[in-house]
Amino acid sequence: MSAADKSEKKSGGLGETVSVIVQALLLALVIRSLFFQPFSIPSGSMRPTLLEGDYLFVTKWAYGYSRYSLPFGPNLFSGRIWGAEPKRGDVVVFKFPPNPSIDYIKRVVGLPGDRIQMKDGQLFINGVGVPREKVGQIDNPDITEVNRPVDVYRETLPDGVSYDTLDLSPNSIGDNTREFDVPPGHYFMMGDNRDNSSDSRFTVGFVPAENLVGRANIIFFSIADGASPLEIWKWPSDMRASRLFHFVR
Protein backbone atom coordinates (compact mmCIF):
# COMPACT_ATOMS: atom_id res chain seq x y z
CA MET A 1 0.00 0.00 0.00
CA SER A 2 1.39 3.38 -0.98
CA ALA A 3 1.86 6.29 1.42
CA ALA A 4 -0.97 8.13 -0.35
CA ASP A 5 -3.30 5.15 0.16
CA LYS A 6 -2.38 4.98 3.84
CA SER A 7 -3.01 8.73 4.25
CA GLU A 8 -6.36 8.47 2.48
CA LYS A 9 -7.41 5.52 4.65
CA LYS A 10 -6.37 7.34 7.84
CA SER A 11 -8.18 10.51 6.79
CA GLY A 12 -11.29 8.57 5.84
CA GLY A 13 -11.32 6.77 9.18
CA LEU A 14 -11.11 10.04 11.11
CA GLY A 15 -13.83 11.56 8.93
CA GLU A 16 -16.13 8.63 9.59
CA THR A 17 -15.58 8.92 13.35
CA VAL A 18 -16.41 12.63 13.33
CA SER A 19 -19.48 11.96 11.18
CA VAL A 20 -20.75 9.28 13.58
CA ILE A 21 -20.24 11.58 16.57
CA VAL A 22 -22.04 14.48 14.88
CA GLN A 23 -24.95 12.23 13.86
CA ALA A 24 -25.19 10.83 17.41
CA LEU A 25 -25.24 14.34 18.89
CA LEU A 26 -27.92 15.47 16.42
CA LEU A 27 -30.02 12.39 17.22
CA ALA A 28 -29.67 13.04 20.95
CA LEU A 29 -30.69 16.68 20.40
CA VAL A 30 -33.78 15.64 18.43
CA ILE A 31 -34.79 13.07 21.06
CA ARG A 32 -34.27 15.58 23.89
CA SER A 33 -36.15 18.35 22.08
CA LEU A 34 -39.10 16.37 20.74
CA PHE A 35 -39.52 13.19 22.73
CA PHE A 36 -37.89 12.66 26.13
CA GLN A 37 -35.78 14.78 28.43
CA PRO A 38 -34.04 13.46 31.55
CA PHE A 39 -34.65 15.53 34.67
CA SER A 40 -33.38 15.27 38.24
CA ILE A 41 -35.47 16.37 41.21
CA PRO A 42 -33.84 19.50 42.69
CA SER A 43 -35.88 19.94 45.89
CA GLY A 44 -38.27 18.27 48.31
CA SER A 45 -41.36 20.22 47.22
CA MET A 46 -42.99 17.17 45.58
CA ARG A 47 -42.47 14.74 48.46
CA PRO A 48 -43.72 12.03 48.93
CA THR A 49 -44.42 11.61 45.18
CA LEU A 50 -40.93 12.62 44.09
CA LEU A 51 -37.75 12.69 46.17
CA GLU A 52 -34.46 14.48 45.79
CA GLY A 53 -32.23 11.97 44.06
CA ASP A 54 -34.97 10.77 41.71
CA TYR A 55 -34.11 10.87 38.00
CA LEU A 56 -37.03 10.80 35.60
CA PHE A 57 -37.98 11.15 31.96
CA VAL A 58 -40.22 14.04 30.93
CA THR A 59 -42.51 13.45 27.94
CA LYS A 60 -41.95 16.45 25.66
CA TRP A 61 -44.82 15.88 23.20
CA ALA A 62 -47.52 15.66 25.88
CA TYR A 63 -48.49 19.33 25.60
CA GLY A 64 -47.05 20.19 22.19
CA TYR A 65 -43.96 22.34 21.75
CA SER A 66 -42.94 25.86 22.67
CA ARG A 67 -39.66 27.77 22.50
CA TYR A 68 -38.75 26.09 25.80
CA SER A 69 -38.88 22.66 24.17
CA LEU A 70 -35.56 23.56 22.57
CA PRO A 71 -32.23 23.81 24.41
CA PHE A 72 -31.60 27.34 25.74
CA GLY A 73 -35.17 28.40 24.79
CA PRO A 74 -34.39 30.45 21.66
CA ASN A 75 -37.09 33.01 20.87
CA LEU A 76 -37.96 31.50 17.47
CA PHE A 77 -41.74 31.55 17.93
CA SER A 78 -44.38 32.28 20.56
CA GLY A 79 -47.14 30.08 21.99
CA ARG A 80 -47.29 26.33 21.41
CA ILE A 81 -47.26 24.14 18.32
CA TRP A 82 -49.61 21.12 18.37
CA GLY A 83 -50.55 22.22 21.87
CA ALA A 84 -52.57 20.02 24.20
CA GLU A 85 -53.95 21.11 27.56
CA PRO A 86 -52.57 19.51 30.72
CA LYS A 87 -55.02 17.53 32.79
CA ARG A 88 -55.71 18.53 36.36
CA GLY A 89 -53.42 16.34 38.46
CA ASP A 90 -50.57 16.06 35.94
CA VAL A 91 -47.04 16.42 37.33
CA VAL A 92 -45.37 18.95 35.05
CA VAL A 93 -41.90 20.38 34.46
CA PHE A 94 -42.08 24.05 33.54
CA LYS A 95 -39.93 27.15 33.32
CA PHE A 96 -40.10 29.42 36.37
CA PRO A 97 -42.02 32.48 35.09
CA PRO A 98 -39.84 35.14 36.78
CA ASN A 99 -36.66 33.42 35.50
CA PRO A 100 -37.16 30.93 32.64
CA SER A 101 -33.61 29.63 32.96
CA ILE A 102 -34.79 27.67 36.03
CA ASP A 103 -36.80 24.43 35.80
CA TYR A 104 -39.57 23.71 38.31
CA ILE A 105 -41.70 20.60 38.79
CA LYS A 106 -45.16 20.72 40.41
CA ARG A 107 -48.65 19.30 40.10
CA VAL A 108 -51.37 21.04 38.05
CA VAL A 109 -54.31 21.79 40.36
CA GLY A 110 -55.88 24.74 38.53
CA LEU A 111 -56.83 25.06 34.85
CA PRO A 112 -57.63 28.30 32.98
CA GLY A 113 -60.79 29.85 34.43
CA ASP A 114 -60.60 27.94 37.74
CA ARG A 115 -60.82 29.57 41.15
CA ILE A 116 -58.27 28.09 43.57
CA GLN A 117 -58.05 28.57 47.32
CA MET A 118 -56.63 26.85 50.39
CA LYS A 119 -58.74 26.79 53.58
CA ASP A 120 -57.35 25.17 56.73
CA GLY A 121 -55.08 22.99 54.63
CA GLN A 122 -57.83 21.83 52.25
CA LEU A 123 -57.74 22.61 48.53
CA PHE A 124 -60.84 24.26 47.08
CA ILE A 125 -61.53 24.34 43.33
CA ASN A 126 -64.30 26.63 42.15
CA GLY A 127 -65.68 26.85 45.67
CA VAL A 128 -65.85 23.09 46.22
CA GLY A 129 -63.50 21.37 48.68
CA VAL A 130 -61.32 18.60 47.25
CA PRO A 131 -61.81 15.39 49.30
CA ARG A 132 -58.89 15.00 51.69
CA GLU A 133 -58.49 11.82 53.73
CA LYS A 134 -55.79 11.10 56.28
CA VAL A 135 -54.23 7.78 55.29
CA GLY A 136 -51.53 7.49 57.94
CA GLN A 137 -48.07 8.77 58.80
CA ILE A 138 -44.58 8.45 57.36
CA ASP A 139 -41.66 8.14 59.78
CA ASN A 140 -38.81 7.99 57.28
CA PRO A 141 -36.48 11.01 56.97
CA ASP A 142 -35.48 9.94 53.45
CA ILE A 143 -39.07 10.68 52.40
CA THR A 144 -40.09 13.46 54.78
CA GLU A 145 -36.73 15.23 55.44
CA VAL A 146 -37.63 15.52 59.15
CA ASN A 147 -36.89 13.24 62.09
CA ARG A 148 -40.48 12.72 63.23
CA PRO A 149 -43.69 11.14 61.95
CA VAL A 150 -45.51 13.26 59.34
CA ASP A 151 -49.22 13.06 58.53
CA VAL A 152 -50.11 11.93 55.00
CA TYR A 153 -53.35 12.97 53.29
CA ARG A 154 -54.81 11.51 50.11
CA GLU A 155 -56.40 14.11 47.81
CA THR A 156 -58.82 13.12 45.06
CA LEU A 157 -59.43 15.70 42.34
CA PRO A 158 -62.80 16.09 40.55
CA ASP A 159 -61.61 13.94 37.62
CA GLY A 160 -60.65 11.09 39.96
CA VAL A 161 -56.86 11.61 40.10
CA SER A 162 -55.58 10.71 43.59
CA TYR A 163 -52.19 11.35 45.17
CA ASP A 164 -50.61 11.69 48.61
CA THR A 165 -49.59 14.98 50.19
CA LEU A 166 -47.46 15.69 53.26
CA ASP A 167 -48.68 17.87 56.11
CA LEU A 168 -45.54 19.01 57.92
CA SER A 169 -47.33 21.69 59.93
CA PRO A 170 -51.05 22.09 60.76
CA ASN A 171 -50.94 25.90 60.54
CA SER A 172 -48.45 26.83 57.83
CA ILE A 173 -48.57 30.06 55.83
CA GLY A 174 -49.89 28.22 52.77
CA ASP A 175 -52.81 26.52 54.54
CA ASN A 176 -55.05 29.59 54.18
CA THR A 177 -54.87 31.76 51.08
CA ARG A 178 -56.94 34.22 49.12
CA GLU A 179 -58.93 32.93 46.15
CA PHE A 180 -56.86 32.88 42.96
CA ASP A 181 -58.59 33.36 39.59
CA VAL A 182 -56.54 31.45 37.00
CA PRO A 183 -56.36 33.60 33.82
CA PRO A 184 -56.79 32.23 30.28
CA GLY A 185 -53.75 30.37 28.98
CA HIS A 186 -52.30 29.86 32.48
CA TYR A 187 -52.14 27.12 35.13
CA PHE A 188 -52.01 26.93 38.91
CA MET A 189 -49.28 24.65 40.25
CA MET A 190 -48.76 23.23 43.73
CA GLY A 191 -46.26 20.88 45.33
CA ASP A 192 -47.42 17.72 47.11
CA ASN A 193 -45.25 18.74 50.08
CA ARG A 194 -47.78 21.47 50.86
CA ASP A 195 -45.91 23.14 53.72
CA ASN A 196 -42.54 23.22 51.97
CA SER A 197 -43.24 24.21 48.38
CA SER A 198 -42.63 27.45 46.51
CA ASP A 199 -45.51 27.29 44.04
CA SER A 200 -48.39 29.30 42.56
CA ARG A 201 -49.50 30.33 46.05
CA PHE A 202 -46.26 32.25 46.44
CA THR A 203 -43.39 33.25 44.11
CA VAL A 204 -44.27 31.09 41.09
CA GLY A 205 -47.62 32.71 40.37
CA PHE A 206 -49.68 31.62 37.38
CA VAL A 207 -47.70 29.56 34.85
CA PRO A 208 -48.19 30.48 31.15
CA ALA A 209 -48.87 27.59 28.77
CA GLU A 210 -45.73 28.57 26.86
CA ASN A 211 -43.60 27.75 29.91
CA LEU A 212 -44.63 24.08 30.04
CA VAL A 213 -41.73 21.75 29.19
CA GLY A 214 -43.44 18.37 29.52
CA ARG A 215 -45.17 15.81 31.72
CA ALA A 216 -43.23 13.76 34.25
CA ASN A 217 -43.52 10.18 33.10
CA ILE A 218 -41.30 7.57 34.77
CA ILE A 219 -38.52 7.42 37.38
CA PHE A 220 -35.64 5.55 35.75
CA PHE A 221 -33.13 5.90 38.60
CA SER A 222 -33.17 6.95 42.25
CA ILE A 223 -30.42 7.35 44.79
CA ALA A 224 -30.42 8.59 48.39
CA ASP A 225 -30.33 12.36 48.78
CA GLY A 226 -26.74 13.61 48.88
CA ALA A 227 -25.28 10.48 47.25
CA SER A 228 -23.58 10.67 43.88
CA PRO A 229 -24.97 8.53 41.04
CA LEU A 230 -21.42 8.37 39.62
CA GLU A 231 -20.14 6.39 42.61
CA ILE A 232 -21.34 3.07 41.24
CA TRP A 233 -19.65 1.09 44.00
CA LYS A 234 -22.08 2.70 46.50
CA TRP A 235 -25.22 1.78 44.58
CA PRO A 236 -25.97 -1.35 46.67
CA SER A 237 -26.41 0.82 49.78
CA ASP A 238 -27.52 4.17 48.30
CA MET A 239 -29.81 3.22 45.41
CA ARG A 240 -33.58 3.25 46.05
CA ALA A 241 -34.30 0.05 44.13
CA SER A 242 -38.04 0.13 44.89
CA ARG A 243 -38.41 3.42 42.96
CA LEU A 244 -36.79 2.25 39.72
CA PHE A 245 -39.10 2.35 36.69
CA HIS A 246 -41.89 3.78 38.85
CA PHE A 247 -44.56 5.70 36.93
CA VAL A 248 -45.25 9.22 38.21
CA ARG A 249 -48.85 9.82 39.30
TrEMBL record:
Regions that span the bilayer: 20-39
Organism: Ollibium composti
Domain Peptidase S26: 16-221
EC number from the UniProt entry: 3.4.21.89
Localization terms from the record: Membrane
One Pfam short name: Peptidase_S26
Protein name stated in the entry: Signal peptidase I
PANTHER family for the chain: CHLOROPLAST PROCESSING PEPTIDASE (PTHR43390:SF1), SIGNAL PEPTIDASE I (PTHR43390)
Keyword DNA repair: no
Topology in the lipid bilayer: Single-pass type II membrane protein
Keyword terms of this UniProt record: Hydrolase, Membrane, Protease, Transmembrane, Transmembrane helix
Catalytic activity of the protein: Cleavage of hydrophobic, N-terminal signal or leader sequences from secreted and periplasmic proteins
Keyword Protease: yes
